[in-house]
From TrEMBL:
UniProt cross-references to PANTHER family, sorted A to Z: CHOLINE DEHYDROGENASE, MITOCHONDRIAL, GLUCOSE-METHANOL-CHOLINE GMC OXIDOREDUCTASE
Organism name: Limnobacter profundi
Stored Gene3D superfamilies: FAD/NAD(P)-binding domain, Glucose Oxidase, domain 3
Entries under PROSITE patterns matching the protein: GMC_OXRED_2 (PS00624)
Keywords: FAD, Flavoprotein
Cofactor (UniProt): FAD
All copies of domain Glucose-methanol-choline oxidoreductase N-terminal, residue ranges: 270-284
Stored SUPFAM superfamilies: FAD-linked reductases, C-terminal domain (SSF54373), FAD/NAD(P)-binding domain (SSF51905)
UniProt keyword Ribonucleoprotein present: no
Superkingdom: Bacteria
Family label: Belongs to the GMC oxidoreductase family.
Name of the featured protein: Choline dehydrogenase
Amino acid sequence: MRTFDYIVVGAGTAGALMANRLSANPNNSVLLLEAGGKDNYHWIHIPVGYLYCIDNPRTDWRFRTEPDAGLNGRALIYPRGKTLGGCSSINGMIYMRGQARDYESWAAQTGDEAWNWNNCLQDFLAHESNWRYDNPHAELADTDLPKFHSGKGEWRVEKQRLRWEILEAFSQAAQQAGIPASDDFNRGNNFGVGYFEVNQRSGWRWNTSKAFLRPIMKRPNLTVWTQAQVKNLIIERNASGELVCNGALVVKGGEEVAVKAVRETVLCAGAIGTPQILELSGIGQGSLLQQHGIEVKLDKPGVGANLQDHLQIRAVFKVQGVKTLNTLANSLWGKAQIGMEYVFKRSGPMSMAPSQLGAFTKSSADRPYPNIQYHVQPLSLPAFGQPLHNFNAFTASVCNLNPSSRGSVHIKSSRFDEAPAIAPNYLSTEEDQKVAADSLRVTRNIAQQPALAKYKPEEFKPGVEFQTDEELVRLAGDIATTIFHPVGTAKMGAANDPAAVVDSRLRVIGVKHLRIADASVMPTITSGNTNSPTLMIAEKAARWILEG
């Protein structure tokens, strides 16, 4: 059995940063385990390459959801990164912290002020490298800049390297509909419309492998294993009868290897992988584990429960008198132009994040804060991975930021190599159904504003014939898709919360020397894209671990 001070399971968004921080002290020996391979696939690094990484076994676990009643029985692809960098190697690259109210809620739910907005902001700043600091006079131009942004970290944040006439028109229309312009969605209140900032460097994707692993791979105290999947954790009782995590059983190269952690094992396997590993290790809902012949080490019903995700409803509008990516990319000359622009300028459609323009607003006037988010694109297609339409169009996808629906992730058997059952349970509450219907009406209102009138927008999907709440909810079930933001399946909570899996310092309740630091610990989903909040969680957890 090989022995290390720390074992980090998963070299994705959280795990890469965790390994970096724990191995900074040369006296700490760290093993980083990644089930996937190296991030040396060229499409990982070209921003538009997410199209070729998602649902590709080289880079993606290729999960599928269970058929979902809220989606009228449909099942969805459920991408999760399976490579160094994890989801940061295949995601939409959007840098989004969420809203201050998210973190105030976490502090209230856990009873720990370490999770309030101001304290979490310090953990965001600890690793941020923001484009605003490229200007040597930036601090003089914006006196609040040091409060909200940093230029000294590893996690690069840049402006997008493109503009589209139709997106500019949508932005103006949103402002005419009462949504103010915004040039920064990351100061605690996202209300507004503007271009997303992205995790890129000079037109290339910037994943956590580049940011946190490549600079430290020669550290003698860091060992990185790829193609190494955890079969289960080694959970034993000490002399006092307490459960202790002493390491993990790992399958690498077809062989089972036991590795020991002297100090801590840290799960960074994400909202799908972490509950699966816990259940395979005997930690979870007792009756479920017994059903699959797994010895119950700790009956903890919160494991795999509380799954939350952002479901986006894609509205497509045909337009006239303006170019969109549909027509540009549907011709050989257009494709050649796109390729040449990227080769020589690192800009244009090949540098695009999946969504370029964003907006945050209320689904109805009685909402106390912005509760829906738009991802707007100068293109349209029948479904992800399918060819673009042969007419000019834009897509305005809208999601409920704070869904009340809850799903689950649970093992299907005792086999470590069998995908778990992912049941998001979308649109299962009346509140979520109401927000879905109202958000489509907000989209229509924006499309009817004067700024878009000259392009004669025509609603192609879902279609103007659908007007009632019941009709719109049914249509949402037909056309909505995930934005790939699963969280919450090993939630943190106060000591008196029976559903909590970890305490407010992310220690697994009831098991010593085991901690979780990934999106699964979120008690409630953040109001925006979840990649950067996951990094913040890892930053905070690493600091606590090193403090002892």
